[in-house]
Amino acid sequence: MTLYCLGARPAQTRAQQPSLNVLKMMVRRAPNQLERGGIDPKPSMLGNDILGNCTSVGIANHLRATAALAGFEVGVRDVDAVRFYAQSTGYQPGNPATDQGGVEVDVLTYAARNGYGLRNDTLYPIWGSADPADLNGMRNIMAGMGAAYLGVRLALADQHDGVWDTSTPGDQTPGSWGGHCLLGWSYTGIDDEDLVSLLTWGTVRQATWRWIRSRVMECHGLAWRQLVPASGRLPGGEGWDTLVATNRTYLGE
Q: What is the superkingdom listed in this entry's lineage (predicted)?
């Protein structure tokens, strides 16, 4: 059994936060499968084995996954992920008492307003939230926006190295281990026992859809204007304008 750090605080909402319900893709029937075996999203640990910085690492790995889908790579260093964690949550490097994790919507808000700084660039996402109980919507986010940025409540029974499922031995109470931020990347099907590939802790972890239903507490989608094609469209073919407008309203721009 290998244990890593968590770091997603309980899900919260903010007034006028962007919603993905404004996008037509959210009401479409999602693909029955989303297979990406030929694409390496290159998830990185970025310090989440020693810090509760998963909310920052999730954004960094979304950057890397988006780049992988376009056929290139974005380099993110540990120092980048830790710096953004400090900026977006109040963590003070060297002071363990301030390593308290992050609220996903606040971390996403900080990224949209201030960007995610890398060695030679700063990238700005637009984002929106979806109903975490809407698994069809979650699948559309994976298919149309590269990956779903999820908050989950992990159970003590999840402290093992196999497939995450609700039938494994141990305490299955959601949140009995703690909150964690990870990415939904692909899936083999849409039935309860079908497998979802999750990007977390520098690897691709497998879970069943029934586990996702049990553990998920929030779901968000991100898109990066600096990484999309010149047409300025989301990977799924959706236009930018509506989502950009909701982000600007939320940020008071």
A: Bacteria
Instruction: Name the nearest CA neighbour of 111 among 34, 151, 56.
Output: 56
Cβ count within 10 A of residue 99: 18
Read off the tokens for 140.
């559309």
> What's the CA gap between 124 and 115, in Å, rounded?
4
What is the total residue count of the chain? 253
Contact partners, residue 150, CB within 8 Å, separation at least 6: 132, 138, 181, 182, 183, 184, 198, 216, 218, 219, 220
- Determine the Cα–Cα distance for residues 248 and 112; give it in Å rounded to an integer: 9
Q: What's the CA gap between 132 and 134, in Å, rounded?
A: 5
For 16, counting Cβ atoms within 10 Å of its Cβ (0-12 exposed, 13-18 middle, 19+ buried), the class is: exposed
Domains located in the chain, CATH noted: 53-226+233-251 (3.90.70.10)
Q: Which two tokens stand for residue 200?
A: 């977390």
* pLDDT value of residue 1: 57
Sign (positive/negative) of CA torsion 121, 142, 112, 25?
A: positive
**List of residues 6+ apart from 64 with CB closer than 8 A:** 41, 42, 43, 44, 73, 74, 76
Cβ-contact 46, 85 below 8 angstroms: no
Q: What is the pTM of this model?
A: 0.96
Per-residue pLDDT reduced to its tens digit, 4-27: 999 999 999 999 999 999 888 899
Q: Are 54 and 202 in contact (CB under 8 A)?
A: no
Per DSSP, what are the bridge partners of residue 224? 125
Calculate what percentage of the chain has a pLDDT beyond 70. 95
List Cβ neighbours of 3 (8 Å cut-off, separation of 6 or more): 159
The amino acid occupying position 157 is: A
Q: Tell me the pairing of strands 116-117 and 178-187.
A: unpaired
